[in-house]
């Protein structure tokens, strides 16, 4: 094929070859796959930047917890803004003192986000090494088991932090 036939008839643009079209599609699909995790990172980073700039320890900057105001009980989120402020300033001990459950949630969310990013980038998940070369098929885990366990953890945290001996978990 000569350059004249590749360009097509006069007045028409040249058609790109199939390889370059395929490469550009792959590039666009990769950018699209990474857009959601990177957008989530930007949003969460902006939220931490706002909380890091406006101190929740000073009264009047953020609203008071409605459950605490109405009942005097600490909800699982009480101290969450203070812990985010401490994390934004690199004070892990202060963050754990404000709300240990929130700090654990930040860590779990960071790990899940990293997993999401790697999968969006096309990195295949690593297979867990097996202790035995031949294993019996595993029974399917009951649906909702993780949700029930998470709800039980949050409820236990809430109850313990409101008991007299749970003062270490109170903000």
CA radius of gyration: 26 Å
Count of β-strands? 0
**Mean of the pLDDT scores?**
83
Following the backbone from N to C, one meets helices and strands in this order, namely HHHHHHH
Taken from the alpha-carbon principal axes, the silhouette is elongated
The assigned structural class equals mainly alpha
Percent in helix: 55-70%
Strand content: under 5%
Extract low-pLDDT stretches.
Answer: none
* Helical stretch tally: 7
- Biggest sheet features: none
For the termini, the CA-CA separation is 75 Å
Can you describe what's shown?
With 171 residues, the protein is mainly alpha-helical. The chain has a domain at 28-121 and 147-162. 59% of the residues lie in helices and 0% in strands. It is built from 7 helices and no strands. Helix 4 (80-88) crosses helix 6 (100-120). The longest helix is centred in the first third of the chain and has 36 residues, at 18-53. It is elongated. The model has no long low-confidence stretch (mean pLDDT 83).
């Amino acid at each position: 094929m000569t350059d004249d036939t590749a360009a097509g008839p006069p007045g028409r643009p040249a058609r790109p070859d199939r390889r370059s079209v395929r490469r550009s599609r792959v590039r666009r699909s990769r950018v699209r796959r990474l857009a959601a995790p990177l957008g989530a990172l930007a949003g969460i980073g902006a939220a931490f930047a706002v909380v890091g700039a406006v101190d929740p320890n000073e009264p009047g900057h953020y609203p008071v917890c409605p459950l605490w105001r109405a009942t005097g009980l600490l909800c699982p989120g009480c101290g969450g803004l203070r812990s985010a402020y401490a994390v934004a300033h690199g004070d892990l001990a202060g963050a754990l003192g404000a709300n240990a459950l929130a700090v654990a949630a930040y860590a779990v969310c960071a790990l899940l986000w990293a997993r999401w990013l790697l999968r969006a980038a096309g990195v295949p998940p690593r297979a867990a090494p097996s202790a035995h070369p031949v294993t019996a098929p595993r029974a399917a885990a009951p649906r909702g088991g993780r949700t029930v366990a998470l709800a039980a953890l949050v409820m236990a945290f809430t109850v313990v932090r409101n008991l007299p001996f749970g003062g270490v978990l109170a903000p």
